[in-house]
Specification:
Strand content: 25-35%
Distance between the termini: 80 Å
Largest sheet: 8 strands, parallel
Shape: globular
Structural class: alpha+beta
Helix content: 10-25%
């Protein structure tokens, strides 16, 4: 027990665990509810699946966009499993004035009617503790605002949110009533079934709270008012929140930074999903952020993120502008539904890699970019060129946000330049420029040549401050054996927070495992690098004990060679492998299906083997209208015979000896009871003779 100090609860507590053990398992034990009723509630909770406007459409979303995506979802997804349409940032008049703006002319109630008419539930995003100048609340109720020594705390300045943004004090009784009334209006007057409450960390700013309450007490007081206003039926998701103090007041929690539809834009969320996996079904349902699969993600990159979202078993919210999504990517989304009631375990989630950024890197060869780094605010195309002389610019530390270097309130463009020398020998391996993490968006130039960009520069407004910058560089771009110039153009959209701020890569886990059914695992391997990755992962590390295991490649829908001691594979650059794994048996057994990423968790039930009749039987459930196939491992000495089922099926034998039962039209919502008979190959040969 640690007592809270009267002046607040900002002290830190260190936790230690046996290095031979697993830290995530230890943390999960800490957060398991003491009440058996709460344990059962979390175990039985159904994680929402649906679509939200947050990622691709973002702040530019319109009423027509939401209606178009709702209609697309109604035509493309099974409404038994796909339940929610969430409207995110971009609809509001201002933070604190959550009525709709001109892009939503019919208002909230009309929009939720359209969503409900298609058989979905309606979700809404808002930032309850944020009030902007344009909303009028700061001027009308200055005593409601959190303060520091300089007066009311300005959390941010965003024109799209209404100018300067202040934070409400959740400890103030009138603020609690305001939050209660807002939540009640969301469900009663506007008709929403689900509420995402964002920017919750702002509720803990300032130096004090009304009545002398601590940050945690004020925060929970405000959350409690929102929860009471919503009632017990609405599903509540927290975002950008102090996590632990929200336990018991939210149903779900965003535990990861924003994703972006790029390889680097997925990695911060993937890492956070691993490190915070212990919260899943012990504190709430985790939200790893949106599932995006659109280009420029390659099909393999999209499959990697779809696999991770599926095996983590948390909220599954698609966020591409679906009517414009390439048709072949739709199947990736369909294969994650319904949300499997699981929670994957990352392997070696807390491994710390050596920091090398900022540097020129080729394999194990590293040339650090030690500076000095020169900096200037403003923007000029001449700053990118090799010939420009930056000697008169100020010197700035790297890594560091520019507000810490004297530019506290600056938002806009800033340029970094540095000069460095390279050895004369051109490396045989690919060359990369590693810059670390940059807030918010950037483009990099080596000797005047653009080598990479992350995030959207104005007029776009999507940053990627958590993404690690690693740009491939053509060898001829560099001056080997001579001097070189690096220029980095940075856009920082949040006042004072821009710059080259971190050198830590924080790579996500490379391996995940989940048990979808007793002794039926799904393993996801991901190569986050741009070079091939030889991988040998012992089955013991995955929690599997046994002599031999069958394996099924989930995305290729083919059986692969049996596993003995380890999963051994060389993953292609940015490659992934998702395997279904079961102990091998002396009888036929199902090893994989085309229904879902997580094998064994969704569709196969009542699997039995009748040794006398030589018949394998099972029931396939939760099927949709897509084609459906079941792959069966067949021991030596046997071959598949005929298939009998409620819905006509066909069976074919692979060269590997496996049997594949197929339903070209799928189950169309119906469960299918089926059985497959087997013949002895010895009897078959004798009959032919």
């Amino acid at each position: 027990m640690r007592p809270l100090r009267p002046e607040g609860d900002a002290s830190r507590m260190r936790l230690a665990f046996d290095p031979q053990g697993d830290g995530l398992t230890a943390l999960r034990a800490v957060f398991v509810p003491s009440s058996p009723i709460d344990q059962e509630r979390l175990a039985q909770a159904v994680a929402p699946a649906g679509w939200c406007s947050r990622q691709e459409l973002a702040g530019g979303v319109s009423e027509a966009d939401v209606v178009a995506n709702t209609e697309f979802c109604a035509a493309s997804f099974d409404r038994r499993f796909f339940r929610y349409i969430e409207l995110d940032d971009g609809y509001q008049r201002a933070a604190g004035a959550w009525d709709t703006n001109d892009k939503f002319p019919h208002g909230h109630a009309w929009l939720t009617d359209q969503i409900h008419a298609k058989g979905f539930k309606a979700g809404l995003w808002l930032a309850p503790f944020a009030v902007a100048e344009r909303a009028g609340v700061p001027a009308e109720h200055p005593d409601w605002l959190l303060r520091d020594a300089g007066g009311p705390v300005v959390c941010d300045t965003r024109e799209s949110w209404g100018g300067a943004i202040y934070a409400l004090d959740g400890a103030h009784p009138k603020v609690q009533q305001w939050l209660f009334d807002l939540a009640r209006r969301v469900v009663r007057d506007w008709g929403y079934d689900y509420l995402r409450i964002d920017a919750l960390r702002w509720a803990t700013l300032g130096t004090s709270h009304y009545g002398g309450l601590t940050h945690a007490e004020a925060y929970r007081g405000g959350l409690g008012a929102i929860r009471d206003g919503l009632g017990t039926e609405a599903f509540v998701v927290g975002s950008a929140a102090p996590l632990q103090h929200a336990v018991g007041l939210v149903n779900g929690m965003r535990i990861a930074p924003d994703v972006a539809a790029s390889w680097g834009g997925l990695q911060p969320a993937a890492r956070a999903a691993g490190l915070r996996s212990f919260y899943q079904r012990s504190a709430w349902l985790n939200d790893p952020d949106c599932l995006v699969v659109r280009p420029p993600l390659t099909p393999t990159e999209a499959r990697a993120w779809a696999s991770l979202v599926a095996v983590t078993g948390g909220l599954t919210l698609f966020s591409d502008n679906l009517p414009k999504l390439p048709p072949e990517r739709l199947a990736l989304l369909q294969r994650t539904l319904p949300v499997a009631p699981v929670g994957a375990r990352p392997i070696d989630a807390a491994v710390v890699e050596r920091d090398v950024a900022p540097a020129i890197v080729a394999g194990d060869d590293v040339v650090p970019l030690k500076g000095p780094w020169r900096f200037r605010t403003g923007d000029d195309a001449a700053y990118r060129t090799r010939e420009f002389d930056e000697a008169a610019w100020e010197t700035i530390p790297v890594p560091q946000r520019w507000n810490e270097a004297g530019h506290r309130d600056y938002s806009g463009f800033g340029w970094y330049r540095t000069r460095f020398s390279l050895p004369p020998l051109v490396p045989a391996r690919p060359v990369y420029l590693e810059l670390g993490k940059i807030a918010d968006a950037d483009e990099a130039f080596l000797n005047g040549v653009k080598v990479g960009q992350t995030g959207d520069l104005p007029p776009g407004d999507r940053g990627a401050s958590q993404a690690y910058r690693r740009y491939r560089v053509a060898s001829e771009t560099l001056n080997w054996g001579g001097d070189n110039v690096l220029a980095v153009r940075v856009f920082g959209g949040t006042a004072g927070s821009g710059g080259l701020w971190s050198v830590h890569r924080d790579a996500p886990p490379r391996a995940w495992v989940v048990e979808g059914a007793p002794r039926w695992w799904t393993v996801v391997l991901v190569n986050w690098d741009d070079e091939p990755l030889p991988t040998a992962l012992s089955l013991g590390a995955l929690g599997m004990a046994g002599a031999r295991f069958t394996a099924y490649d989930v995305w290729r829908d083919v059986p692969v060679a049996d596993l003995k001691d380890a999963v051994t594979v060389t993953l292609e650059p940015r490659g992934t492998l998702t395997l279904g794994v079961r102990p091998a048996a002396a009888r036929p057994l199902v090893i994989g299906t085309t229904r879902h990423v997580v094998q064994g968790a969704v569709d196969i039930t009542e699997e039995t083997w009748d040794a006398t009749a030589r018949t394998l039987a099972a029931k396939s459930v939760n099927l949709d209208a897509r084609a459906y196939a079941v792959t069966v491992a067949v021991p030596k000495g046997m071959r598949p015979g005929t298939c009998k089922a409620d819905v006509p099926c066909t069976v074919r034998r692979l060269e590997t000896g496996h049997a594949v039962i197929e339903w070209a039209a799928g189950g169309d919502g119906r469960d299918i009871k089926w059985e497959l008979s087997f013949l002895s190959t010895a009897k078959t040969r004798k009959g032919k003779n």
